[in-house]
Each structure stands twice: as structure tokens, then as C-alpha cells.
Amino acid sequence: MKISRSDWLLYSIAALSALAVVALVYSFIEKRVADAQKDIPVKTVTVVEKPVLAPVLIASRDLFRGEKIEPDDVKVLMIAKEGIQIKGIYEKPQQAIGQIVRQDMYAGEWLFAKKFTDKLDDAPLEQVEGITSLIEPGMRAMRIPVSPESGLLGILKPGDHVDIASVFNSANGDRQISRVILQNIEVLSIGQESRFKPKTEISEMEQSGTKKDETAVKRSMVALHLTVQQAEKLALAMSVGSLNLLLRNAADIEIKESDGVNVRVIESDQQKRVVRSDKGQRQTVQLLQGGEVQEVKVP
Fold this sequence. Notes:
Blueprint (H helix, E strand, L loop, with lengths): L4 H35 L13 E7 L14 E7 L12 H4 L28 H4 L11 E6 L15 E9 L6 E15 L2 E2 L4 H9 L4 H8 L1 E6 L1 H13 E7 L13 E2 H6 L15 E6 L2 E6 L2
Protein name: SAF domain-containing protein
Pfam families: RcpC, SAF
Organism: Thiosulfatimonas sediminis
């Protein structure tokens, strides 16, 4: 059957109408869905990646210089590795056990390798935990006798730094000289007291049968950390004169130049006279108070 042109026109109009209806229905449905989604609360979920953890060795108690690290003295702490510099820090207990503490550390502090000396697993206990463990390579320990007045006994403690002043006769013997011969010297121990042996332990030792006179002698000896040249100078000063220890501020590391003094310098030294200004020349300050101006003299 032959389709006439009018039929083609009718079919075309019907097809276009159907497409228009489909488009309208799709647009209507899409609008309804969008309106419905606006009424539904949207929850934002942030996904956080699990941080990469790294082991860090920390002190389980306060550690003092000269102590040998035992297994109970350290523990492992896991921390986030990102943004943390862990170079030079011990990660395993085996790295620290058997080493000697070079610097005091507090409980919870990270253990840096530079704060320890080499392991001394084969050394006898009395050598590992004695004064020898505190001596740096190339340095020497020297004990000097001091009195409560000259040695700051009761004030001085191991780890402090001192200057050493010596009083001696001049080379020709005509006058006495007082001069600081050594500066910024570290104190290793005082008598039987050191950084690695608490005072309570010392007092127990003294009460367990040690004679009082012997204890007094031992506690009046101060061990100092010296170079060979400093030890030579100190030994000579001990033989020709007397010594006095001068306590330094922990933050003061400056070395002062000094020519020393003698009796003539002390005799000629006069106190500077305090010169007071004339009372008639005092300055005045004007004060505004309650709308009135007052003049007040500055003393």
C-alpha cells in the first residue's frame, strides 16, 4: 500500500510529539529526584591513612652519667614516622644495653647514640661503673684534697664546673700571688659521691662500719676531669701553694684572662668614693592630676 504524503506528515508529527513527551517526562522526573536529594542530609566521610610507625628507644628511669645500661633501664616507644627525624636514635634495646651513659637523661627521654660510650661487656663491673667510665679519651682524672672552705663541700656536686685559684710564692720568693690557673674544669666525684652513686647509698656505706675519720678524709677529696697539661699544672700548684675551687654558673663557659693579684695590689686598692649629686640640682617632673599640675622632685 502506497503511503501518501499526508500520511508521512502525520507520522512525522506523531513521532516528534512522542519525543517531546519523553523529554518532558524525563525532565520532570530528573527535577523531582534533584529536589528529593536536596532534602537528604549528606555526610562527609574523611578517610585517614594509618600512619607508619617507627620504634624509638626511651629511658624507663632517670639515667646518670657513668651508669651502665641494663635491660630494665630502657623501653621501646612506637611513634608516627612522618615529620619526625629519628636519625641517630636507638631503635632496639640491644643497641643500648651494655653501654655507658655520657650525659644525664630523664625518664621518657629519647636515647641518642652520641650520649653513650662504647660497650664494655667484657670489663669488670667495678671498672665499668667507676670513675674510669666517666673519663673521655685523652683526658685524665685527678683527685685533690680540699677543705670545706676551699672546696665548696656541701655546695659542690658531681657534674659541676669550677675554676681553680692557687695562692703561691713568686719565683724570687719576695711576695705571694693569687691567680686562677685553670678554668671550666668538670667535677667527676666528691669523696665517694659521684653521678652514678646516690647520697643515700653513700650514707649507708658510711654507717655500715666505716670509721668517721676515714670517711671525712674520703669526702674531702675532689676528682677533676683534666687534660694532661692541666694535670701537670695542677700537680705543681698543689706542691708549691694552696688551692681554692670557684663554682661556675652552668651556662657560663667563657674563659677569662687574669694576671692574678699580690699583696701590694690589695693594699693599693681603694674603694671608689660614691659621689652624690647636689640636692639643689635635682630634676622635677610635672604630674597632671585632677586638672591640676604638680611638680615632683626626682631623688
